[in-house]
Amino acid sequence: MKKHCVQHNTEKIAQWNQNFLHRKPASPEEETHFLEQRNRLTPERKDIETWVDLLDLDEGRDVPLKNPTP
Fold it and tell me: What single Pfam family name could you report for this chain, choosing any that match (predicted)?
């Protein structure tokens, strides 16, 4: 398995982490699914816009309030 692994530097890992943390629905279908799930969990939280925040909410973790993107 090691021969197929790619060793990434710290900068690449940090970039991947930031992209993951800020990932939003990428298509109309994903957005529909995302909004259905968000509204099922907490319809009043329009500030939940990323998959990570939605997952945290679904798993019962606190998600601090933030200003939604216009």
Answer: DUF5069
Distance, CA of 70 to CA of 62 (rounded, Å): 23
* HSE-up of residue 34 (Cα within 13 Å, Cβ side): 20
- Residue type at 66 in one-letter notation: K
Alpha carbon distance 54, 63 (integer Å): 9
Domain boundaries, the chain: 28-70
Model pLDDT for residues 6-31, shown as the tens digit of each residue: 889 999 999 999 999 999 999 999 99
CA-CA-CA-CA dihedral for 61, 69, 67, 19, to nearest 10: 40
The pLDDT of 39-53, averaged and rounded, is 96
CA distance 54 to 33: 11
